[in-house]
Design goal:
about 200 residues, alpha+beta, Glutaredoxin, two-stranded antiparallel ribbon, 6 helices, disordered N terminus
């Protein structure tokens, strides 16, 4: 085989192998299955009912953390997630639950959290707990946040990531802030197909 053809064949093979090894460009997030994130969710909804991951078995969960006074990340994320849920077929959406938990429980009352998430979609569930419960749940998901008190201000910073949890309760995908509704739908549909 001439050198030129051999080089072209090798480049083609290398390209095919790289394409197979690389994550799909359409995926919205990072596969975190091997990190064994989560497992713990022990927070209250606006009615005071304690919600745990086990009660959602059989559904794909989209879990996000934030705070109601967040000026940018939280509302933008919830708008994208609401659009993603809207893009799902009715039978798919019935097998998906969105959970949003506050990282600022001292200022975000359960009622406020409930009204906040319901403004994006009435089916979304807002969650809150004590500072200790919030710390335990965020630690289980390796979610980073920090609250700083400066003069009369309360400054909250947090990771913009969210999580997709499969129907068996395993955290499978970390969703980045830049994920489009269509990318979120692809990740959700992939996990729905496994259920």
């Amino acid at each position: 085989m001439p050198a030129r053809l051999r080089r072209r064949a090798l480049l083609g093979l290398a390209g095919a192998l790289l394409a197979r090894a690389a994550p799909a460009a359409s995926s919205s997030g990072k596969d975190v299955t091997a990190e064994h994130l989560g497992g713990l969710l022990d927070l209250r909804d606006p009615t005071g009912r304690v919600r745990r991951l086990a009660e959602f078995r059989g559904k794909v969960l989209l879990l996000f953390f934030g705070y109601t006074r967040c000026p940018d990340v939280c509302p933008t994320t919830l708008l994208r997630v609401a659009e993603a849920v809207r893009l799902l077929r009715t039978d798919e959406a019935a097998r998906v639950q969105v959970l949003w938990a506050t990282v600022d429980p001292e200022r975000d009352t359960p009622a406020l959290v409930g009204r906040y998430v319901e403004a994006f979609n009435p089916a979304f569930i807002g969650l809150s707990g004590s500072v200790a419960q919030t710390d335990a749940v965020t630690a289980a998901f390796k979610f980073r946040y920090e609250i700083t008190y400066y003069r009369s201000e309360v400054l909250v910073s947090h990771s913009p990531d969210g999580y997709v949890i499969d129907a068996r309760g395993r955290t499978r995908v970390r969703i980045g802030y830049d994920a489009s509704p269509e990318q979120i739908v692809r990740d959700v549909r992939a996990l729905l197909a496994e259920a």
